DNA sequence: TATATCACTATACTTTTGTATACCGGTATA
DNA sequence: TATACCGGTATACAAAAGTATAGTGATATA
């Protein structure tokens, strides 16, 4: 139960909290990190495999997002000494544990859709134009 | 344990899941929505109050983000018939329940910092330049 | 009379994020 | 010989997100 100490600590060291939340936001930021992590939850993948799995992503973005995730300690990149090289991406322990964040996001989203669409009974929620 | 039904359902209706997660992402997208919601968790606020609470935000962004949050059913806007007008913003039920998402984000972030900084024992995690 | 507050909006701009397209050297397959 | 795969990078551009600054009309305070 972190809940109970929340406010108590928040008064004393909000900086720690802000940094922690920023870390989480960095993992979620942008259009592609969520689907990439989701794909890697099914196991280690190679670059092109990810590219096929995460539909519509360009190699440029995939490369960049993987670099970000690696820098943030979410993904581990391993290069094998084959010819040509084999590169494998997999989630770190932290990356795997991020699933619990994704789970509540999904859970809340489903709940929210049910409640809100029923409540407002009108146009769909705001979405990005495709 | 959502875990067990996850994959089963994922195979059948992934669209629902994608939409739900998108909703959650919309609530988190951008620089300001998290702090705005966090502020509103302490109770209803007026426009300028929020502006003071959420440091460094410009009225333009505050206005825009509040409109987004309202459209997404997170915030309720009430105009009172005073002169000059009084406008109050408060979280909807969905908005309040969003706290559980924020809680795991915080929790995961703290955990991740502990593990990762200890693990890598090097430069800090990637952060935006100020 | 001058200044401040309320809840914003308008305009112009910069920065960040994402896309499109082509390309690299080396290897395996047809 | 031609093509495709591997794991990306280079360049140029478009779109989205965010900032800076000023201003609105009415009312209350000094």
Automatic annotation (TrEMBL), chains A, B:
Source organism superkingdom: Bacteria
Ranges for domain HTH hxlR-type: 13-117
Family matches, as PROSITE patterns: HTH_HXLR
Keywords: DNA-binding, Transcription, Transcription regulation
Protein name stated in the entry: HTH hxlR-type domain-containing protein
Organism in which the protein naturally occurs: Wandonia haliotis
């Amino acid at each position: 139960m972190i809940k109970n100490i929340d406010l108590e600590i928040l008064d004393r060291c909000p900086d720690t909290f802000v940094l922690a939340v920023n870390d989480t936001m960095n993992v979620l930021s942008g259009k592609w990190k969520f689907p990439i992590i989701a794909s890697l939850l099914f196991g280690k993948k190679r670059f092109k495999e990810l590219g096929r799995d995460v539909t519509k992503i360009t190699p440029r973005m995939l490369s960049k997002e993987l670099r970000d995730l690696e820098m943030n300690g979410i993904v581990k990149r391993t290069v094998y000494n084959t010819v040509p090289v084999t590169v494998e991406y997999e989630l770190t322990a932290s990356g795997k544990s991020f699933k619990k964040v994704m789970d509540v996001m999904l859970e809340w989203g489903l709940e929210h859709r049910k409640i809100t669409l029923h409540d407002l009974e009108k146009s769909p929620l705001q979405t990005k134009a495709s």
